[in-house]
Design a protein that fits this description.
The protein is of the alpha/beta class. Helices cover 41% and strands 15% of the residues. It has 3 domains: 81 residues; 112 residues, Aspartate Aminotransferase, domain 1 (Alpha-Beta Complex); 246 residues, Aspartate Aminotransferase, domain 2 (3-Layer(aba) Sandwich), CATH 3.40.640.10.
């Protein structure tokens, strides 16, 4: 701890001299109670609590004593009670800042897992505040009787998907585990070998099956599975036929897979439930945004799936959750399992989800009202114009920087549509005497963190995921960047 002004310094004078100087400086430090008697201390105590303030004051005093003991330069003014309180106030305010911060996503990856995946629509954000207090989560206001937790989304889900019933849990991994435990514990689940997915670092479908008590019966080969493979696997121990979305990979070349409609026919003929794990859960066709067709929830159920399950924070673009939809009798069996209560979601998730789902009642307006679909609908011309605007303004503020507009490729991300590429435009930045990774770090440490990509020794700000309202935050970050690589 060093301050640049006239200081009292402990020199190397031997143990007795050091002890004498230390005692002299230490005696100059105020007592904790003397600091707490200052008027400003009363304000800090009212905001942060007396206990937190006392702890911060003690920590500041201990830090000063430690600096003195180690021979550090400590100016006399820092031994005053007001100065100690100022140090304590800075520490307590710094410690009170939220760990989670709003950031600007300039990576070009729309559903960026590290940045919280989907951006909630404005109506969902408003709903979070509206239901944060008391709300009729599980009460029918007309009868006064207890109601089902998902009742607030049941009607809208039935309208959008054609399902008989719906159940919502904390995420799609939880939905998979609950479904297997409730419907297949101790029995076989038939699935193609090419669909034994691993997502993230820990979700592996064979492991989930084993943990749920279900018995894995894999059929076919990694690259080819035929309809007869499902038929031949059926037996008295078969609990369900399961199809899983290959969320984060593709199998190409000499391949064959069986569609959900064909599997459903086998299940219907033998009285075995058929489950379609759709992964990302499309509610509208993605072709209108220049992306490959993704089987929608309605298409899956219409093709004969008894149940479909999917995430609510991917192509739905809502809060994190996992939804199971389909045949009411099966949903009731799943709801009756003890794990459902463990995995069910809170009022905030359901409130935000209901508000998000309502946007899909007007699919032609999604690109105007839903952030996910706004980003999908961005045209190359619009992104190039946005990059030019940013280049012009930054160029005025930092004329020494090297700025260039480049064509890029952006991705949906979040384990959705693997390999689907979208053209984008970005601003590439180089700063003299500053490495790209250090420049990226300084962008991330700005008042509003900006999260870019780094490639080719450049920092890349991809306009696919940058909203027009983010530009002032980027410009503020630019003003905080120092060529020397140190934060202001």
């Amino acid at each position: 701890m060093v301050w640049r002004e006239k200081t009292t310094r402990i020199a190397s004078k031997g143990k007795n001299s050091v002890k004498k100087d230390f005692n002299k400086l230490a005696r100059a430090l105020p007592a904790v109670e003397a600091v707490l008697k200052l008027p400003e201390a009363a304000r800090l105590s009212a905001v942060y609590g007396r206990g937190a303030l006392v702890a911060s004051v003690r920590h500041s005093l201990n830090a000063l004593r430690s600096s003195i003991l180690q021979g550090g330069s400590v100016p006399p003014r820092l031994c005053a009670a007001a100065a100690v309180l100022e140090l304590a106030a800075k520490e307590i305010e710094r410690g009170s800042r939220p760990r989670l911060q709003r950031v600007v996503n300039a990576t070009g990856v729309i559903l960026h897992t590290g940045l919280g995946r989907a951006v909630l629509p404005g109506v969902a954000q408003e709903e979070l505040a509206r239901v944060a207090g008391y709300c009729n989560l599980q009460q029918d206001l007309q009868t006064g009787q207890r109601d089902r937790r998902e009742e607030c989304v049941r009607a809208i889900v039935r309208e959008l998907t054609g399902a008989e019933d719906v159940l919502v849990v904390n995420n799609n991994a939880g939905a998979t585990f609950l479904l297997l435990a409730a419907l297949a514990c101790g029995k076989e689940v038939v699935i193609s070998r090419g669909e034994l997915i691993e997502i993230g670092g820990s979700f592996r479908l064979p492991d989930i099956m084993q943990a749920s008590g279900a018995i894995l019966r894999e059929v076919g080969t990694t690259n080819k599975t035929h309809l007869k493979d499902y038929t031949n696997a059926l037996g008295p121990q078969t609990a369900m036929l399961l199809k899983a979305h290959k969320s984060n990979y593709k199998i190409v070349g000499f391949t064959k897979e069986v569609c959900i409609g064909e599997i459903a026919q086998v299940g219907m003929q033998h009285g075995v439930p058929v489950v379609d794990d759709l992964g990302c859960g499309a509610l509208v066709g993605l072709e209108q945004f220049g992306l490959p067709h993704e089987y929608t929830v309605r298409e899956s159920l219409r093709s004969g799936a008894d149940l479909a399950l999917f995430s609510t924070d991917k192509l739905i673009g809502g809060p994190q959750g996992g939804m199971i939809v389909g045949r009411a009798s099966l949903i009731e069996r799943i709801r009756a399992h003890p794990l459902y209560r463990i995995l069910r979601v809170c009022k905030l998730t359901l409130g935000a989800l209901e508000a998000t789902l309502r946007l899909f009642k007007a699919p032609d307006l999604l690109a105007q009202k839903h952030p996910l679909y706004m980003m999908l609908a961005k045209t190359p011309a619009a992104m190039k114009s946005q990059a030019r605007e940013l280049k012009t303004v930054i160029g005025r503020k930092r004329p020494a920087w090297e700025l260039a507009i480049s064509g890029e490729i952006s991705y949906l991300g979040g384990g959705s549509l693997p390999g689907a590429e979208m053209p984008s435009y970005a601003l590439r930045i180089k700063v003299p005497r500053l490495r790209a990774d250090e420049l990226a770090r300084q962008f991330r440490m700005a008042p509003t963190p900006i999260v870019p990509r780094v490639a080719d020794e450049c920092v890349i700000l991809d306009m696919r995921t940058v909203f027009p309202g983010d530009l002032p935050d980027i410009l503020q970050a630019v003003e905080h960047i120092l060529p020397g690589g140190k934060d202001k």
